[in-house]
Design goal:
By secondary structure, the chain is of the alpha/beta class. Helices cover 30% and strands 18% of the residues.
């Protein structure tokens, strides 16, 4: 099979720039060998004498020979970390969020990534259902560890039903085989009421805990349900009572784990504590926030950073009104924090935006859309000095919401400047010195 890595950027003053590489050029071979991803490339470029086979945008191929230091980088960035195609999920999971997306959105939002290489490189969760013998051998040979694995349940029969395929039932055999080869894992469970909770969740935690130290952590996140579920498996969201049962079960496991290993091991997504009306665990209980990007510990981490960041503000000479945008689930937390923020001539309005785009059952801030924010702000009376939007709702590395609107669109519609706050420090600094 022929692979080619398409160069997207060449850093200035780099070796790549010196030898004339350009965005759009394709890397075909290194030292006569094809490379299938940047993992292969990193090993190939460890040599001091390198021979690159490049295909220019014109279609002309060129062989380039160079010498470099052992640890010297070429300064190249690629359109994708994999030079073939991203491996997509062939499962039919009853909780799949992609299957609940509305039509007409950008193509990338419909990609069901299930590629172990992206799991190793970027922490993407994978099911392991598309792994073959060669894949397992490569993972072990290159020691691609840790991986991030969506387990959901260790009950093979139940996992087959939840993921929609017989290969899914082999999860414990796969984890044991990879663990025997020295591979570690961060794992997750997407919890569905009445499906893999209760006794099944208890079993899953027990089975994964038995795989310590290979299993580094286990996060439990609630199933996300949008209004686009006409042809999906019937599921419900967690009630307050059901969420409380989950928090109690996990709390007992955390006590056991801390007594035996001095770590919590299993962690709940913030939504469970919010739904149950429970206090969040201590900062130390999150053991360094191993799955922060999975929504586990965001609130506690935010609160800690808020308390640590001092407000050095003399106040404003003229009245300022700043709207702070959040999802429904974060409203109480932000309101209580901002009520204590005393900056002269500053009025802060916390605007909890209902998610009409995906449906009112979706309350997390990260899934807000620009369109919903615009409509919510238009309904508010009075003028405003500025708007602070949550950076977590923007596509990573870009200024665009899930509905393809941008912060600039919000500014144009509301006639007020818009700034992004990615965490507590950003928010405090913007409020203390709006500019």
């Amino acid at each position: 099979m022929t692979y080619s890595g398409i160069i997207s950027n060449v850093k200035s003053d780099s070796i790549g720039a010196e030898i004339g590489l350009m965005p759009g050029d394709r890397l075909l071979e290194v030292n006569g060998e094809v490379v299938q991803d940047i993992i292969d490339l990193s090993f190939a470029l460890a040599e001091e004498e390198i021979e690159l086979l490049i295909e220019r945008s014109s279609g002309e191929q060129e062989l380039i020979t160079l010498e470099k230091e052992y640890d010297e980088d070429l300064g190249l960035e690629f359109e994708s970390a994999v030079f073939d195609k991203v491996r997509q999920c062939a499962n039919k999971c009853i909780f799949c969020f992609v299957d609940q997306m509305p039509p007409g959105m950008r193509e990338s939002l419909y990609i069901k990534d299930d590629d172990y290489r992206l799991s190793f490189l970027y922490g993407n969760f994978v099911t392991l259902t598309n792994l073959g013998v060669k894949d397992i051998s490569r993972i072990a040979r290159l020691h691609l560890s840790p991986l991030y694995v969506s387990v959901h349940t260790t009950n093979g029969e139940l996992r087959e039903r939840m993921l929609g395929g017989r290969q899914a039932g082999k999860i414990m055999d796969q984890l044991n085989e990879l663990a025997d080869k020295g591979i570690d894992f961060h794992t997750q469970v997407v919890l569905c009421p009445g499906v893999n909770d209760g006794r099944e969740l208890d079993r899953t935690i027990r089975d994964l805990y038995a795989l310590k130290p290979s299993v580094l952590s286990l996060s439990i996140v609630p199933v996300g349900l949008t209004r686009y579920r006409d042809h999906c498996h019937p599921l419900t969201k967690f009630s307050a009572a059901a969420a409380e049962e989950v928090t109690e079960l996990v709390h007992e496991w955390q006590k056991k784990c801390r007594e035996e290993l001095e770590e919590s091991f299993v962690y709940l997504a913030d939504e469970f504590y919010l739904a149950a009306g429970k206090e969040f665990p201590s900062y130390e209980s999150y053991d360094g926030f191993r799955q922060l990007e999975n929504g586990v510990g965001l609130v506690r981490s935010f609160l800690a950073e808020w308390e640590e960041e001092p407000v050095m503000a003399a106040g404003y000479t003229e009245p300022q009104v700043i709207d702070v945008i959040c999802g429904i689930s974060a409203e109480k937390i932000l309101v209580s924090l901002l009520a204590e923020l005393a900056v002269p001539n500053l009025t802060v309005r916390v605007i909890a935006v209902e998610n009409r785009f995906f449906g009112s059952d979706v309350t997390v801030t990260g899934l807000l859309t620009g369109g919903d924010i615009i409509e919510a702000l238009k309904r508010l009376p009075g003028s405003r000095t500025g708007i602070i939007i949550p950076g977590v709702a923007l596509r990573k590395g870009e200024q665009v919401f899930l509905d393809d609107t941008t912060p600039a669109d919000i500014a144009a519609e509301l006639g007020a400047p818009v700034r992004s706050a990615y965490f507590a420090q950003d928010l405090k600094q913007l409020l203390a010195a709006w500019r």
